[in-house]
Amino acid sequence: MHHSNFVERERRKARGAVSNETGRFDLVRQDEDDGWDLPEDRGAFQTEVREERARSLITWNRSPDLPFDRSINPYRGCEHGCIYCFARPTHAYLGLSPGLDFETRLVARPNAAAVLRKELSARRYKVAPVAIGTNTDPYQPAEKDRGIMRDCLQVLAEFNHPVAIVTKGALIERDIDILAPMAELGLARVGISVTTLDAGLARRMEPRAPSPARRLKVIRRLTGAGIPVRAMVSPVVPALTDHELEAILQACSDAGADAASWIMLRLPREVSRLWQDWLAEHAPDRADRVMARLREMHGGRDYDPRWGHRMRGEGHYAEIVAQRFRAAARRLGLDRNVAQLRCDLFAVPPKAGDQLSLL
């Protein structure tokens, strides 16, 4: 199945998607050490970051599939360009393509920390852990110059607010100075997503995310600083990365991770077509098998969005993966119940000029 809108290969070097709907691009670019050490001509598709004033920051969700009810996103879109990213369809709400636009036309929210401070200070605010990185990566390259995520973390630290971060970005190491003291108080956990240990496959599938070896180093650095890390094998890709499940868990455990989770590849809305285009180009010999397995888990469809089903799928194959994960996690001690993040320390810090409490 081919798509008429393929962008020629040279123009999308080091990008995940092979197609796009629009093509107005600017010349803004950031670089960070991502563990690849490859001198690389960035090709014709440059990354453009525009700014948006956030009116509100905390997003509320009611999904029974998710372990948190609130999240914040300092950025929209993500330059890591992971082809399978389930957040790609959100770019359509901005009138942009979930394809190349999602990874090249980003939105930064420079006032995020100020809005967050205001929301946490509201009288009716009730504390519970906030998730960051569930939609787009807060430690993508744009963060290096902007520091919006760091500003948000500083606010959370001031309020003693619990936070769970999910990232593939090595830039999180910069913020160990904030995260380590928070972790010591039981206020912070990090999930590092490792999909494959095969550097070549990672390069094609997650073109601007740090290499697998670099992500393992991030786990070592964070856990070495006392910040607990969950290894996230997500997504597991049938017939492409599923055979690596045990090896990934072993490598993350060796690097210091104390917990683990997994999610099966999900292809909501436009992601299905983008993924199939990618398969046709990068793994044509596996394409049919990958899709057959996915459809088998979703009642013949590419994806079934039902709650309780969408993260894992169902049927024989899904059950085998679940069993393998449980066995490996148990063997490595990654199946322990981790301590809940603390909510009892939360307090709105006094503002300049406030009457200080006498207690």
Write structural notes for this entry:
- The protein is α/β, with parallel strands linked by helices.
- It has a domain of 244 residues: TIM Barrel.
- The strands form 2 sheets. A 7-stranded mixed β-sheet has the order 2-3-6-7-8-9-10, covered by helices on one side. A 3-stranded mixed β-sheet has the order 1-5-4.
- Strand 7, helix 5 and strand 8 form a beta-alpha-beta unit.
- Helix 2 runs parallel beside helix 4.
- The radius of gyration is 20 Å and the shape is globular.
- About 3% of the residues have low confidence.
Topology (elements, then pairings):
Blueprint: E1 48-51, E2 59-60, E3 70-72, E4 75-76, H1 100-104, E5 105-108, H2 112-121, E6 130-132, H3 142-146, H4 148-158, E7 163-167, H5 176-184, E8 188-193, H6 199-205, H7 212-224, E9 229-236, H8 245-254, E10 259-264, H9 271-282, H10 287-297, H11 316-332
Parallel strand pairs: 1-5, 3-6, 6-7, 7-8, 8-9, 9-10
Antiparallel strand pairs: 2-3, 4-5
Helix pairs in contact: 2-4, 8-11
* Mean pLDDT rating: 88
Spans with pLDDT under 50 lasting ≥5 residues? 21-32
What separation lies between the terminal Cα atoms? Answer: 69 Å
Count the E strands.
10
By CATH reckoning, the class of the domain at 16-259 would read Alpha Beta
Give the strand content: 5-15%
Order of helices and strands: EEEEHEHEHHEHEHHEHEHHH
Question: What is the global morphology?
Answer: globular
Gyration radius (Cα, Å) is 20 Å
Structural classification: alpha/beta
DSSP helical segment count: 11
CATH fold annotation of the domain at 16-259 = TIM Barrel
Helical fraction equals: 25-40%
CATH architecture of the domain at 16-259: Alpha-Beta Barrel
| Main beta sheet | 7 strands, mixed
For the largest beta sheet, what order do the strands appear in spatially? 2-3-6-7-8-9-10
